[in-house]
Amino acid sequence: MKCKDAMLKAKVPTVPGSPGLVKDADEAEKIANEIGYPVMLKSVYGGGGRGIRIVTNDQELRDGFESVTGESIAAVGKSAILVEKFLEKTRHIEYQFARDTHGNTVHIFERECSIQRRNQKLIEQTPSPVVDEETRARVGESVCRAADAVGYTNIGTAEFLRADNGEFYFIDINARLQVEHPITEFVSGLDLVKLQLDIANGEAIPFKQSDLKMNGYAIECRINAEDTFLDFAPSTGPVPDVTIPAGPSVRCDTYLYPGCTVSPFYDSLMAKLVTWGQTFEESRTRMLSALNDFYIQGVETSIPLYKTILASDEYKNGDLSTDFLKRYGMIDRLTEDLKKEKEDKSEAALAAAIIHSEYFKSRAQNSNANNSNWKYKLDWWKMDYKIQDVEKSFDGKIVENLGNNDYVIKINDAEHNLKILTMDSKGIEFILDNTYHKAKYLEQSTNEMNIVIDNVPIILNLHTHFDEVVYKNSGGAGAGNAQLDLKSQIPGKVVSISVAEGDSVKKGDVVCTLESMKMQVAVKSHKDGVVKILKIKETATVAKGDVIAEIE
Questions:
Q1: Fold type of domain 91-328
Q2: Contact call for residues 158 and 94 (beta carbons, < 8 A)
Q3: How many CA atoms lie within 13 A of 285 on its CB side?
Q4: Residue 176 is among the residues annotated as catalytic for this protein
Q5: pLDDT for 382
Q6: Residue 334 and residue 313: Cα distance in Å, rounded?
């Protein structure tokens, strides 16, 4: 609050809201009715989007006040909450700045951080498509005034909301480097970590504002271990294999390695993928290529969503906002993109399976292997609504072995030329009709083969027929059969229980709340019914798949 007061004195516009901390939900409700809904409840001990709720009425405010308080206490052991007006269709734009002990203050340009989920940043870029040179200088000067007003020392980040009318409103100052600082390093040419240490050592900033120039465009994608189709619920577990993208102007900061484990006890961020280009389009296409090269086995990730976003016209046109995912239906688009991606890779996957069969036939003398009829099934990520998977059937076989690793294969009624580049029992690199492909064989049973083709997971079935597959919406982090069991789909600690045995519930009602990866996730009933048995207690730890309750 001292920071906000200082901003007002320095004539830096701030978001309308409470003049100080609110002591309870009653006071928060009074202020909300004065400034008008929707409002944002924000813990001053939050960060990274946590401890924030957007509410549209009194009941949501009271529920949200309890949740924000709980998240803040769980994170730092105490809570203090502000109420601020929630601005519709805003952009989140922040400025990097530095101030030393010798009276020198500079801003190091802006970063656009508008693409978010749950008020947490997903994709950042610099420069912002809506900040011209005049705006950059004007807002940058206000950032320097703000830093001077509070006597700030070292590197920091001033965060703003930009309203649809172009006005900037100060939110807060983060007194640290942030996850997205590498994109500023790319376009400024500065080593911000070194600069931070030099300032802390009492050295003066070795350049003036006029010395700084922006060079090119940079984008960062936060690679999170989350299930997009389960409301971004955490995804944890072992990572048997991983491929890290690399190349000119590609940077990946990560802890991942083959055989590591993604733990439920830390943040869901697994990697920061950053690309740079002379133009925005060069940086964007380089990022898409890097995302296609990034493969993480064992946990769900945000990579497919980013590919959908970066390929969208809205992103290419710079039409960004903090509600970007909802405004443009990105989750629905992702569903369609995943279908198309698997359809596009289906023939290559079947070709890899056919050659795999031939490979083992030559060793096991399985005379029927190369005549097997494979049925291809799209088998992907959980959806948050009912959907019938698209199925495509393919018959495939080897027509002729030409020698020298060259084959003619037939898929349905079309013949294709295939050349093996490298192959062993674990995978194959090959050229199919002049297109390069790389496949990994993950698992195989008598009727099923699990293949990753060009980093796209696909399941091939040897059956002539199989039942249609329907994934059912759980509406939250819990899912169960239509009979009794409500199961947790994430590991975590039970922080609260919202029902008792004998209570009536409707599908979508909150049964309990779990904490995982520093996030609180509601487990919701998968059906209408009565809670017959509760199998959890507060503070207990549950694993993915554990039964939460029996609902009849």
A1: D-amino Acid Aminotransferase; Chain A, domain 1 (3.30.470)
A2: yes
A3: 5
A4: yes
A5: 24
A6: 14
Strands across the sheet containing 529-534: 478-479, 485-488, 547-551, 529-534, 504-505
Neighbours of 203 (CB within 10 A): 13
Q: How many helices (H) and strands (E) does the chain have?
A: 11, 37
Which residues are CB-contacts of 128 (< 8 A; sequence separation ≥ 6)?
91, 93, 110, 111, 112
pLDDT for residue 49: 60
pLDDT in tens, 75-84: 777 778 999 9
List C-alpha distances in Å: 389 to 298, 329, 335, 377, 468: 22, 19, 10, 8, 7
**Sequence-ordered list of residues with C-beta below 8 angstroms from that of 192, at least 6 positions apart, any chain:** 96, 108, 155, 177, 181, 184, 185
Residue 440 and residue 452: Cα distance in Å, rounded?
A: 5
Distance CA 142, CA 52 (A): 26
Report the C-alpha gap between 229 and 389 in whole angstroms.
15
Whether the upstream peptide bond of residue 264 has omega within 30° of 0, thus cis, is no
Give residue 470's pLDDT: 26
As a CATH number, domain 474-551 is 2.40.50.100
With beta carbons less than 8 A apart as the criterion, state whether 69 and 130 touch: no
Q: Domain 334-461 adopts which CATH fold?
A: Glycoprotein, Type 4 Pilin (3.30.700)
The CA dihedral of 451, 452, 458, 464, to the nearest 10 degrees, is -20
| Contact indicator for 356, 428 with CB cutoff of 8 Å | yes
Which one is catalytic: 99, 118, 162, 176? 176
Pair 115, 153: CB distance under 8 Å: no
- Let me know if 215 is exposed, middle or buried by CB neighbors in 10 A (0-12, 13-18, 19+): exposed
User: Tell me: the pLDDT tens digits for 371-423?
Assistant: 444 444 433 222 222 222 336 667 788 899 999 999 999 988 899 999 999 99
DSSP H or E run through 74: helix 58-76
Q: Which helix (H) or strand (E) holds 137?
A: helix 133-149
In this structure, are residues 432 and 406 in contact, taking their beta carbons and an 8 Å threshold? no
The token pair at 164 is 């649809």
- 232/53 Cα distance (integer angstroms): 16
CATH architecture for segment(s) 2-85: 2-Layer Sandwich (3.30)
The label of the residue with tokens 């005049």 reads 134
Residues of the chain with pLDDT under 70: 1-4, 46-50, 360-393, 445-447, 462-483
Domain ranges of the chain: 2-85, 91-328, 334-461, 474-551
C-alpha gyration radius of the chain? 27
Q: Residue 355: how many CB atoms within 10 A of its CB?
A: 20
For residue 3, the Cα-to-chain-centroid distance in whole angstroms is 31
SS3 52: strand
Tokens of 375: 């049925």
CA distance 307 to 341: 11
In Å, how far are 218, 221, 300, 473 from 284, measured between CA atoms?
Answer: 8, 11, 23, 33
